[in-house]
Amino acid sequence: MSEKKAKKLIYTRQEMFELNKKILLKRGVTLEAIAEISFKQQAKYTDNISRDICLESVEKIISLRDVFHHVQLAAEIDRLAEEGMFQGPIQDIIYEDLGLFGIDETMGLEVSGLYGTIGQTNFGDIDVNKHGIVKRLNDAGKEDGICHTFLDDIVGAIAAAASTRVAQVMSEETAHEETGLKRFSIFDL
Ligand code: MG
Fold first, then answer.
1. What would the pLDDT profile of 136-170 be if each residue is shown by its tens digit?
2. Distance, CA 155 to ligand 1 centroid (Å)?
3. For the chain, which ranges sit under pLDDT 70?
4. Helices 132-140 + 151-179 axis angle, to 10
C-alpha cells in the first residue's frame, strides 16, 4: 500500500504574510493600496495618523491564519470563476457578481469582525462607498474575463480591520499617556 504523500498544511506567520502579499499582488492589489483606504477612513475620526501605522496594521492582519485562509480561498474562487471551472448555476452567479449573492460579503464580515463590531461597520462603509482600490477592483471586475467578486470584499475587509486596529492602537497610546505608563508590548492589538 502506498503511503499518502505528506502535504504542507501549517504555515508560519511570516510564510502566511508572504503568501498573502504575493497572491494579492498577483490579483493586482498592493498592501499600500489597502493601507490607503484605512488611512482615508480613519483620518476622518482620528488626528495625526500616519500611513506607516496603517501599513503596519495591514501587514499584521494578513499574517493571521484565519485571514490567510480567507484571502487564499477568495483569490482562488475568483480565478476559477474567470476560467469557467465551476459547474452548475454558481459559475455564472459568481462570475457575473450577482447583487443578491452575499457569500462574498459574509467572508468580508468575518475578516473585519476580527476587530469587533466597529470593524464590521467600517467594512459596511467601504462596501457601500467603494473607496480606492475596492472601486478599481469592482470596476475592473465588470470587464470581460475578469472576476473580482470575492477579492473586492476581502480587500475591503482587510482595510476595515486595519483602520479599526489603528483606532485601537491610538486609543491605547492615549490611555497610557493619561496614566503615565508606557505601552506594554504584550498587549499586541
Ligand atoms: Mg463582492
1. 999 999 999 999 999 999 999 999 999 999 999 88
2. 10
3. 1, 181-189
4. 170
Model's pTM, two decimal places? 0.93
What's the pLDDT at 174? 84
- For residue 105, report the distance from its CA to the centre of ligand 1, in Å: 6
Q: Which residues surround ligand 1, an ion (CB under 5 A)?
A: 104, 149, 152-153
The answer to whether the beta carbons of residues 75 and 27 sit under 8 Å apart is yes
Quote the pLDDT of residue 189: 61
Q: Find the 70 Cα to ligand 1 centroid distance in Å.
A: 13
CA of 45 from ligand 1 middle (Å) equals: 26
The domain spans of the chain are 14-177
Q: Compute, in angstroms, the gap from residue 167 CA to the centroid of ligand 1.
A: 26
Question: Is the CATH number 1.10.287.1260 carried by domain 14-177?
Answer: no
Task: Quote the CA–CA distance of 69 and 58 in Å, as a whole number.
Answer: 16
